[in-house]
Amino acid sequence: MTRTLLRTLLSFLGVMACYSAYALLVAPVVTPPPPPRTTATLTAAQREQASNVTRRYDALLATYFPADHWTRQNPKILESDQAMLLIKDYETLEGGRIALNPCLMIFFPEAREEGSAAPSDAVILEAPEGAILQFANGMDLAQAKIGRLEHGVLNGQITIRSDMRQPGPEDDLTLVTQNVQLTESRIWTGDAVRFRLGANHGHGQQMEIRLLPRSASVPENGAGFAGLQSLELVKQVKMHLAFDRPGLLPGEDSSAAKGPQPPVEVTCRGPFHFNLIRQVATFEDQVNVLRLNPDGPSDQLTCELLSIFFEKPNDDPKTLPAATANRRQPSKAPLKPTIVEARGAPVVVRSPSTGGGARCQRLKYDLASRTLSLDDEKEIVLVQHNREIHAPALEYQLHPERGRLGRLWASGPGWLQATESTRKVQVRWQKELRLQRQNGVPVISLLGRPHLESTGMGHLDADQVHLWLKEASDMPGSPTPRSGSIRAEPDRLMAQGNVRIDSPQLTGLTQRLEAWFQAEPAANSSPPQRQATSTARKTSPMAMRPVGPQRSRSSPVGLPVGRTNRVAKQYDIQGQLIRLQLKTRQGKTSVADITVDQQVRFRETRLETPAQRPLVITGDRLQVFHADTETAQVQVRGDQARVEARGMSMAGRTIDLDQRTNRLWIDGTGTLGIPVNKGLDGRPTPSEQTLTIRWTGGMNFDGQRMRFNRQVEAQGQHQTLRTEQMDVTVRQPISFRRTAKSPQVELHEIQCRGGVFLENRSFDGPRQTSLDRMRTEDLRVNHLSGEVYASGAGWLSTVRMRGQNNPLDPTAKPAAQATPASGDQPLEYLRVDFVEAMEGNFHQRQLAFVRQVQCVYGPVETWNQLLDAQNVDGLNEEAVMLDCDRLVVTEMPQPVASRGAIELEAQGNAVIEGRTFTARSDRITYAQAKDLLVLEGTGRNDAQLWRQPYVGGPTSRAAARKILYWKRDNRVEVDDARFFDLSQFGSKKSG
Q1: 13 — alpha (psi -120 to 50), left (phi > 0) or beta?
Q2: Which residue has the higher pLDDT, 376 or 566?
Q3: How far apart are the C-alpha atoms of 928 and 934, rounded to whole Å?
């Protein structure tokens, strides 16, 4: 549209130049006659000279006029280097006026040599009804002098025409008006003006041409002006312009237009003004540019002022010849438009044919740099297809290569919105939006707390966001981009400063977010076919494809990997730096790799059930590889690296998870917490507790068994276990690749090697009731069956509230007769040492100690006081020792008491020894519930009992095959007695 308008204005420039040449050539040939209204008489010599002139120019005139035209019938011809004046006759009138009738002028764009070919772009001015000119000071024909032109009238219809430069009628010029008047300062007409330039045509009312005043340095030549200053059509301007582009906004692909395009109609209430000094053409007052479309709504631009700026010629007097500089004439070179500018309140562009539109107060298009600028006191609106942008000011520069992204700048605050299918993407910023190239790569920058939001996908906020784009061919299989078939795709994204992510599956906070995009072809699918839509819609340089986070997948332990669970999960991620590797496939985006650095916190915020415990990851660095597959690898590193999942928690300097091998491991020092409802000894706990395991030599978990190495310590609420190596087997294997609901961790078996120490404390409310300790070489506890086994030498000790008599002392008084030394309940201590093994079943509440069993029992004053079984003399009066080959301890449940009653069975050379007694038999049993002690001998060895009333006192002895003693009643029975001193017991003899 701009180029066509300018070509039309160029025709006006030619017309004005014709008027100027006409004024300069009339003076030498016209003089006022003495009497008014007399006709001049030519001599024979003058007629002959005129005839010769006619014949000399006949070939030239034949180029422009037919044979019957009056210019071919012996006209009077006057010429200069660049113009010819043709008239039939003239006469002088009163007041120094002269009448020319008819009058025609030919203006040549350059000085013409005689005999040269007639130029096609000459401009012809015709005044068939003649002209009347008024000169100051009259004129002297004899001296060829003419006064200054004061006024002139071109009567009737005036026609200006030219075949212009191009062959054919495409750029032919025709301008028709009438009753033109002129002075030394202006040329005007109050009548209508019609014009046509090729396929372009239009009309207006009241034409006025302003002339440049004569410079003092120009010699007096009878003309009072030196050139043209401006051209104006005052009102009711209307132009129809041929336009080869499909829309009114710049940047559309003209190759997309097929066949002739509808014309463009420009109207304004006026005026239309062309300033030749500043080289600016303007349309004013209700300017309406209408692109006619017979098949649908028309495209339209409305404004109050439309300005077209042209490239100024080189008129510097220092660089031009003196004669040219003195004339101060505009350059004769074709006008070249540089800037088109529209102003209004508002400027509105509607382009239904291309899906575009704009609204602003000022629109400017720089043709030289191909830059479009829009600004407004409030905000501009620019729409194209399903994209819309708002900002106080916007500037866009097209790329030299069609289809590629140019340069864009929008000052803030502003927003951009795009809709594709059912998804809407909206971007807001407070400072500015920039699209520019860095090393040839287009980069979008959003500054001033930008906000990016997508329907169903959440939003992203940051202090600034930068998006690197890559331009790829839209033709499948094409190795290089082809002109017009280029699409822009996201390549890399960086967000900085208080970055916040909020989406249906992911929320987060970081200081810096970096994301890389990788396009992958769809598996087992043919290359995508181009859709049968307009190329301009797909490849418009102002089109931006929306970019935003997509739904990721999740694993059974809660990581966003693998296939999507039935219940959509949500995660919150925090860290100083987050890096994402994104894969796009068939229009969908998935997270492939994740890296989070510094102050990492990754937390599951939406769970499958309210009772489920969330996944929490903390550390200095989190890395997830192949997150969009079921073979993901996860690594957490840091001084305080920690993972919590489904109640389990683990910590270490490096935590690794490999879904492909279904393996979780921690190198070096680490900690693991497991929710349990049983203690380390396999016995149920009153409530769920956390078992914490620490180690220094690494941990490995294959989904079934956890192995902990070196300086292993397992600690429950009231239990502690130390060993060099521990294996923990879970009841139900855990698959890190399965997407079904994860099972609750439940221990199956604990196995320890390399030395074991176990400590257990029991409580009744806030009061401690027992302290149990054990040391052995190896230990295996099965939580399901209750079986326990320890191999090698070891020992077990227990300190308990003293609620019964000494189970190993056959001479002690009943508990009812014992009086505590203080208000606190006294404590009792029991230790069992063994050489070969310990075995039993916690469910059955039974333990057996094998080979060289040594047991010591006695009261103690504190929980940590020990009794030395090797130092009999150092024991107190109530302390007792037991030696045997095998000792079985069973805790029998009681219907009322919270603790069960103890039953002991010592086998093989059993010896019980205290300070005032000694008992020896092959088998010794004690039932705490019955308060019954039984000593049994064999056929060869009797059960024997020695007792002193006090240390150093007389000794009494009893020997029998079997001795039964009820301590509570101080009653004894003997079976098959060999020797018995009844004075020692209130008892009876049997057998």
Answers
A1: alpha
A2: 376
A3: 12
Distance in angstroms (rounded) separating the CA atoms of residues 859 and 827: 6
Listed residue (809, 857, 849) closest to 833, CA to CA = 849
pLDDT, tens only, 352-366: 877 788 999 999 988
pLDDT digits (tens, 9 = 90+) for 23-71: 333 333 332 333 343 444 555 555 555 555 566 788 888 888 888 888 8
Could you read off the pLDDT of 356-414 as tens digits, one per residue?
889 999 999 888 888 889 999 999 999 888 889 999 999 988 888 877 888 999 998 99
The kind and range of the H/E element at 390 are strand 387-397
Q: How buried is 735 (Cβ within 10 angstroms: 0-12 exposed, 13-18 middle, 19+ buried)?
A: middle
Distance CA 622, CA 574 (A): 10
Q: How many CA atoms lie within 13 A of 908 on its CB side?
A: 11
| Strand positions, DSSP E, 406-547 | 407-411, 414-420, 423-429, 432-438, 441-447, 451-454, 458-461, 464-473, 486-502, 506-519
Q: Which SS3 state, helix, strand or coil, does residue 611 take?
A: coil
Residues in the chain: 991
- Helix (H/G/I), strand (E/B), else coil: 13: helix
Closest CA to 243 of 2, 10, 484: 2
Question: What is each CA distance from 566 to 330, 556, 631, 733, 743, in whole angstroms?
Answer: 78, 12, 20, 21, 16
- Tell me the DSSP string of 874-940: TS-TT-EEEEEEEEEEEEE--SS-SSPEEEEEEEEEEEEEESSEEEEEEEEEEETTTTEEEEE--SS
Predicted confidence at residue 707, as pLDDT, reads: 94
Alpha helices in 360-479 (DSSP H): none
Rounded to a whole number of angstroms, the distance between the first and last alpha carbons of the chain is 135
Q: Which of 883, 890, 880, 965 is nearest to 915 (CA)?
A: 880
**Res 808: pLDDT:** 58
Q: Which residue has the tokens 């559309």?
A: 252
- Give the pLDDT confidence score for residue 149 in this predicted structure: 66
Return all residues near 272 (Cβ < 8 A) that are at least 6 apart. Answer: 204, 232, 233, 237, 281, 282, 283, 284
- Contact between 840 and 832 under an 8 Å Cβ cutoff? The reply is no
Rounded CA separation 86/887 (Å): 146
- Report d(CA 215, CA 227) in Å as an integer: 10
69: burial class by Cβ within 10 Å (0-12, 13-18, 19+)?
Answer: middle
Alpha-carbon span 312 to 713, nearest angstrom: 89
Task: Please give the structure tokens belonging to residue 327.
Answer: 């004339």
Contact 630, 657 (CB under 8 A): no
Measure the CA–CA gap between 624 and 561, rounded to whole angstroms: 9
pLDDT for 466: 94
Which amino acid, 803? G
Q: Name beta bridge partners: 589.
A: 584
Report how far residue 677's alpha carbon sits from residue 800's, in angstroms, rounded to the nearest whole number: 23
Buried b / exposed e along 156-194 (16+ C-beta atoms within 10 A): eebbbbbbbeeeeeebbbebbbbebebebeebbbeeebe
Residue 102: asked if its preceding bond is cis (omega within 30°), the reply is: yes
Q: Which two tokens stand for residue 534?
A: 């307009």
d(CA 405, CA 692): 59
Pairing of strands 506-519, 570-585: parallel
Residue 477 vs residues 330, 404, 527: alpha-carbon distances, Å: 55, 19, 8
Angle at 888 between CA 885 and CA 894, to 5 degrees: 160
Residue 326 DSSP class: H
Contact 818, 809 (CB under 8 A): no
Could you identify the residue written with the tokens 């906004």?
Answer: 249
Find all residues with CB under 8 Å of 110, minimum gap 6, and list them.
Answer: 82, 119, 332
Longest CA span, the chain: 192
